[in-house]
Design brief:
Strand content: 15-25%
Low-confidence stretches: none
Structural class: alpha/beta
Mean pLDDT: 94
Distance between the termini: 39 Å
Largest sheet: 7 strands, mixed
Oligomer: single chain
Helix content: 25-40%
Radius of gyration: 16 Å
Shape: globular
């Protein structure tokens, strides 16, 4: 928890309580349904919560923004981001039902009001969002292909609508097809822990033609 407070010092009492509750909740649920490596549960805040919040170092979602977390697993990066941005609406989507169950129970336990959950494949979801976020669920090209249909043309943030991914290691080949517009940030520039030495945030803007939006 200290890492969170160190890098995000302006949290409300409610947000601090929500973040603090995650360790026990995930430890309890992980013993029943394995959504985090058993040997990694002790690194929950650094490897999962703070990693998820790396997205918040490159964009501050404005009130009313709609975000889909594709392949959320047990709720990453969606749940930490939903705590940090209570005025933003998040859809957490995963094709594995037991993982969505964990994410839903954690969100319910900490009282998140800005999260909805869906057990489905991304190809099936047709609604529109300002951003799709993910944490290394698939190659960037595949993600763009699947999620392009979900990106709204209504702009309300400092970055144009698009896809924001948490990636590790070498991403040059993945970014190559989008090199003229993609942006990459090194998380080691924001977080000093060794874990972040090779971690990155990758952003690709998506330009869809305007159409009737509901």
């Amino acid at each position: 928890m200290n890492e969170i407070l160190n890098y995000f010092p302006g949290l409300s009492e409610c947000q601090i309580r929500q973040f603090e509750a995650l360790q026990d909740l995930y430890a309890d649920w992980n013993a029943k349904i394995n959504v985090i490596s058993r040997k990694d549960i002790g690194n929950l805040y650094e490897h999962h919560v703070l990693h998820s919040l790396g997205i918040a170092k490159v964009i501050r979602f404005r009130e009313g923004t709609r975000v889909m977390d594709l392949g959320t697993g047990g709720g990453f990066p969606g749940i930490p981001l939903a705590i940090l941005f209570p005025e933003v609406q998040f859809l957490l989507l995963d094709s594995i039902g037991k993982k969505i169950k964990v994410a839903g129970e954690v969100a319910k336990a900490i009282g998140l009001q800005n999260v909805s959950l869906l057990h489905a494949r991304a190809e099936e979801e047709k609604r529109l969002f300002d951003f799709v976020v993910s944490r290394a669920v698939m190659p960037l090209g595949d993600l763009v292909k699947i999620c392009r249909k979900n990106i709204s043309t209504r702009q309300q943030n400092s970055l144009p609508n698009g896809i924001i991914c948490l990636k590790g290691g070498e991403v040059g080949s993945e970014i190559q097809p989008f090199r003229h517009e993609a942006m990459t940030w090194e998380l080691k520039d924001y977080f000093t822990e060794e874990f972040f030495e090779t971690k990155k945030v990758v952003y690709v803007p998506i330009h869809n033609k305007p159409k009737q939006e509901s």
